[in-house]
Amino acid sequence: MSTKRSSLWRALEKPWPIWLGGSILGLLACLYFAFGKTVGVQTSLLYWGAWVGEYLGLEPASWSFFRGSQAKALAGGFWRDAGSLLTLGVVAGSLLAALSASEFRLRKIASRKQLLAAILGGFLMGYGGRIAGTCNLGAYFGLLPSQSLSGWVFLAFVGLGAGLGSWLLWKYFS
User: Helix axis angle, 42-55 relative to 82-100, nearest 10°?
Assistant: First the structure.
């Protein structure tokens, strides 16, 4: 039994071919669509913030956003929100993949400038996702496969943003 386990572990340690990873992600996206869902985490993270706000004494249920279908999701809680469970699975799967490949590291932040850049970048990504109505997962697995114009606009700006971000990292943080 231990031989099979160790050979499976060795297989997980190696990088997967791109075609295999892409095929698995595509299959999972199709299964998610089959259940009438779209892939995305933006709204679930918004719910997480609202649930924390409730715990701290705020009343997000009275806010205009949390009327209609959002009210039902907010009242259902974390364990009944499919997006929250998906997000938890993405985080757990990413951690497992990093651990199995011995790539998980806690690193010290090099400088306050780097910390500020990371916070600003995260804020801009979150803001962009909210005004776009979806996050990058939703765009890649929902908008692009359905040939939505907004998906292609998203893809163009992701390319521009990645290029600009890479240039800024190289110029100011290397």
Answer: 110
